[in-house]
Batch of 4 targets.
Target 1
Amino acid sequence: MRITEAAGKLGMSPRMLRYREALGLLPPVRNQGAHRRFGPDELSAVAQGVELEKRFDISPAELAFALRTLSEPAVAQAVRDLGLRIGRLQAPRRALDFEKEKALRLLQGDPRGHRRDHSQE
């Protein structure tokens, strides 16, 4: 079906549907160079996007950026770096750090974290 009919079925204007397409929120066109035709898969994908926007109270642009962070490693890393810098994210603990902390606890006392009294040995 064409965009006008698809937009009507989705309860939005053709302009809003084109906007979502420009943001990358629609599946790619199957035949390059052809006009977009909307079938059940395309309608379902748009409806799923709209449902996510409502559920998480976000805009189509915010959803598009979230998808970009998931699909582009450089963008994901830049967002992660910002999150660490502003305190919204915590650096993941490395296994080596965990083992180091465990070894220090064992050297300082018993496994439960109590210090041993070496004065009576």
Target 2
Amino acid sequence: MTSTSIRQGNVRFYDNVKFPRGFAKSGDFTLAEEEILTFYGKTLLGLESGELEATNDEEKRLIKVTQMELAPESKIEKTWFKYITLARGRKKFHTLNGRNKPEASDDYVADTLEDD
């Protein structure tokens, strides 16, 4: 675990809506990031939402990071920023099929017109 002055949450943090199988099993987070989210997530969420008051400089900095005033630097800041981006942003979906239909070539159109 990283050394930090950010308080651990009084209960473990889980997001059963966006990550129902857990953070690490989603494939988006490492085991270390899952541990950070689980132990510090309640505090981070409380600081971001304003429910908790920042008690030290590291927590004040985290609030500025979540408000996009500063870039994330510490492992906790980067992990929380990654979490809010994935949990609140649109999930990318890749498919093997394209949406656009291929254009009919002029040769194909001319051949079909001649057959009629």
Target 3
Amino acid sequence: MGVQEEDAATGQIAAEAARVYEKCFVPALFGQFAPWLVEAAGIRGGGRVLDVATGTGIVARAALHRGASVTAVDINEGMLTVARELAPQVSFQRAPAESLPFEDDAFDAVTCQFALMFFADRVQALRDMARVCHPGGHVAVSVFDTWENSPGYRDLIPLLSEVMGAQAAEALKAPFCLGGPGVLEGLLEDAGLGGAQMIHKTGQVRHASLDAWLDTEIGGWTLASLATPEIMATLKAAAAEPLGQYRNSDGTISFEAPAIFAVAQV
């Protein structure tokens, strides 16, 4: 696997792609889930919150909006560059989820939105989230349902395989790998967080057009470095038939985004 493919598989993106992510992906998909996760974690004003793998700071900003004192970490400097610009009140640090640079019991709640699938050691990451969370506090994580159960992606991924190859398709499958029955529960139990409350939430993916969906999906995520203008033109030309079913009468695109929230009390 080359450097670009490795970056795609592990969720690494450059600052340019992070800006596309914030401008396009956050309103199209991720932004709506952040207040739900903050609510599920029981975050209130005055609480100390750690957001792990914060990306561009979506959940961190939602926790800040509720009056919490927020710290956030990410391993990706490109994401942190954008996050710091958008929320200077948050203490952003570069750190891996598996080795959080904080004392035990330092936070009242720990959140992690749609990032657990990218960690090198998921169980260790969950253990460290529990370690830094105050007894009685909550660790709240969210993952997507399987790609086969996710409208839009169950048709986009096979198309991507045809146009960009199997490695690109596997990279796009990565965000959905923890959605299978019992997968997330098993990780939590192995990390000492058994008995977590499991909450199923369904958001909506919305894009201005089919081309905008593809530009966002590829340009604002881990595949940005793999897609040449020629590849994007080929992908858009091939997309009309398999993806046209998600086009509304006004040309916009929308489909459901099923997700699973797990809230564990420490």
Target 4
Amino acid sequence: MRALASATLALLLCACATPSRWTTGEPLNGVVARLGYPTYEFPGENGQRVLEYATGPFGKFTYQLRFAADERLLSAEQVLTEANFATIVAGMSTEDLRRRIGPPAKRFRVARPPQTVWAYRYDAPFCQWFMVGVGDDGRVMDTAYGPDPACEVNDGDLLSMGRRR
């Protein structure tokens, strides 16, 4: 039941929370009344507030809405894009990473080099995700693209189809 509720929320956010549905100058309280509480909030430059609406571990969109000090909408951006991924560099802190592209869909540990991988699903023509290797010091070590395991096919079944019995 909990999974169904999460999936429904993600679909509603995707359906309702598109940048074309927001108007520059819209008040912050109006956005929150429509979308609910953000998944994350952090301060921006010059007294701005940034509200983040992430669509969850299987969602491919994370929206960040920037509000001026007077709590009027300045901009709305879908941040899970290859252009934003290209700005992630070695040495960046996890806080900067988090504020730049939001929460990862999944985190997992790898042994060589020892690091925690933050993996991000995003809207792409192929079933892939963006991965960021984070060292034990909390700094970005490297980045890469790879196949999203949610899309993997059991290759053994495909290979056995062509075999004679």
